[in-house]
Design brief:
This protein is an all-alpha fold. 75% of the residues lie in helices and 1% in strands. Strands 1-2 form a two-stranded antiparallel ribbon.
Amino acid sequence: MYSSVSQWMRRYGVGLLFILPALVAIGAVFVYPMVSSFYLSLHDIDLTKPWRGEIFVGLKNYRSILANSAFWDSVWRTAYFSVVSVGLELLIGFISALLLNEVFAGRSTVRSFLLIPWALLTMTNGLMWMWIFNPHYGMFNAILTKLGLIDSYRVWLADPFWAMHAVILADVWKMAPFMTLLILAGLQPISEDVYDAAEVDGASTWTKIRYIVGPLLRPALLVAVVLRTMGAFKVFDIIYIMTSGGPADSTKVLTFYTYEQAFRYYRIGMGSAVSWLITLVLLILIVVYIKLLGAEVE
């Protein structure tokens, strides 16, 4: 028994010693917060009434959230934001990647400049778009007025319909380059011989995109779509900066609903429960992604 343990330690001990700091870091920044938040989600904790302490309520927080119409409203807003923003980013990213995959003078420079929006801090991006949509001196109003599309400046971020689409526009402008980068990475391994053979057979540009680029690019597209869907589903900062969930809760998505429960109303248990529901949805998305990508690889 002792000899087998000694042999195992000699074989794996050094490796375990090297990965121990990483395991400690993962436990500190990932495992402990996850376990702690799940523990909090099972308790009724109201920081406005600290004398009550932590009251164990089991799954009551989850039942209360699922029965709350405001929660489901935030779910639909999140779904709408995710579908529209990711769809636009996919379309823009796909077209941009196809163009940047071609050989032309200054291609490297264009690729570098394309990444500038993605490299900007989200706070900077949000403030910039707030200035663009400013009702007094914003560039958006100025352009539309010059074109004769509107006769007076409008408060776009105060309109429930336009506020959501303004936030979507800001998110698409920032994240479309990221989608372009992922799709472009998927285009690089496709050999020029494949395109040349298709041209010899008389294939048009659309035919090549549909029957060559599409199938070969599908794994990269799946990665890009799933990564951006998860990112869009967790959107918070751009909404917090531009609209703070308003007007009339029109941009209050799931993460902002979680923020309000935990840090505005100080219902830590409820906030933790919502965060776990979000995690559950994201895990489902990850499983779907693995299934789809696994099927493509096979």
